[in-house]
């Protein structure tokens, strides 16, 4: 995720300048949509971004908001508003909105159009409405960017779409090294990474965990 990492470092520098009042909020890139297959580290990136920027992470998603209380439309909208309010109070902050493809394109979905008009409209209002969100950087994540309502990704909202691709051999070797920790110290993991091509960072974690568990369990006699 080289492009995402480069954007994150630029954002960290901009937020530092914003804190020092040497950069105006209008000059800061205030949003990004991470798009890529499941397990490629979009959520991990959002956590790391908040840590790098030394700001609190705030998390929301359609499923989190929809599961609030009775799950009625009013409950969902209140929960969404509460998350944005939390991010504003913590500003500057990183607000991570997962599963953004859950906000279906209103023009492509004929089921319950009134529901989706209200839900997507509320999200758009929080992104750039009258209340504003100075100090709040919104990072979205999706496995299917083509399903996201285009109004969400228009200019001034989450208009920067950054691809988070499957890791190459170099990245897989580095990911294995992180998850193995002190185990296999000094061992070249290039061959393992070659065999793992096509896998994700989440797969590497699972394989490393399985290898560790296999060593820890006593062999049956």
TrEMBL record:
<keyword id="KW-0547">Nucleotide-binding</keyword>
<dbReference type="InterPro" id="IPR003959">
    <property type="entry name" value="ATPase_AAA_core"/>
</dbReference>
<dbReference type="InterPro" id="IPR003593">
    <property type="entry name" value="AAA+_ATPase"/>
</dbReference>
<protein>
    <submittedName>
        <fullName>ATP-binding protein</fullName>
    </submittedName>
</protein>
<dbReference type="GO" id="GO:0005524">
    <property type="term" value="F:ATP binding"/>
</dbReference>
<feature type="domain" description="AAA+ ATPase">
    <location>
        <begin position="28"/>
        <end position="168"/>
    </location>
</feature>
<comment type="similarity">
    <text>Belongs to the AAA ATPase family.</text>
</comment>
<dbReference type="Pfam" id="PF00004">
    <property type="entry name" value="AAA"/>
</dbReference>
<dbReference type="InterPro" id="IPR027417">
    <property type="entry name" value="P-loop_NTPase"/>
</dbReference>
<dbReference type="InterPro" id="IPR003960">
    <property type="entry name" value="ATPase_AAA_CS"/>
</dbReference>
<keyword id="KW-0067">ATP-binding</keyword>
């Amino acid at each position: 995720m080289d492009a995402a990492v480069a954007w994150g470092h630029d954002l960290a520098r901009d937020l530092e300048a914003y804190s020092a009042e040497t950069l105006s909020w209008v000059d800061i890139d205030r949003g990004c949509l991470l798009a890529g297959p499941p397990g490629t580290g979009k959520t991990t990136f959002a956590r790391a971004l908040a840590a790098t920027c030394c700001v609190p992470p705030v998390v929301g998603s359609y499923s989190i908001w929809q599961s609030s209380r009775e799950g009625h439309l009013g409950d969902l909208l209140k929960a969404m508003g509460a998350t944005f309010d939390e991010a504003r109070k913590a500003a500057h902050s990183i607000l991570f909105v997962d599963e953004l493809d859950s906000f279906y394109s209103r023009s492509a979905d004929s089921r319950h159009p009134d529901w989706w008009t209200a839900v997507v409209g509320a999200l758009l209002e929080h992104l750039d409405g009258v209340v504003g969100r100075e100090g709040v950087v919104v990072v979205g994540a999706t496995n299917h960017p083509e399903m996201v309502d285009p109004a969400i990704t228009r200019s001034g909202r989450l208009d920067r779409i950054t691809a988070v691709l499957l890791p190459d051999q170099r990245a897989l070797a580095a990911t294995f090294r992180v998850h193995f920790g002190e185990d296999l110290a000094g061992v070249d993991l290039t061959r393992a990474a070659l065999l793992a091509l096509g896998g994700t960072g989440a797969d590497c974690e699972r394989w490393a965990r399985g290898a560790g568990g296999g060593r820890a369990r006593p062999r049956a006699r």
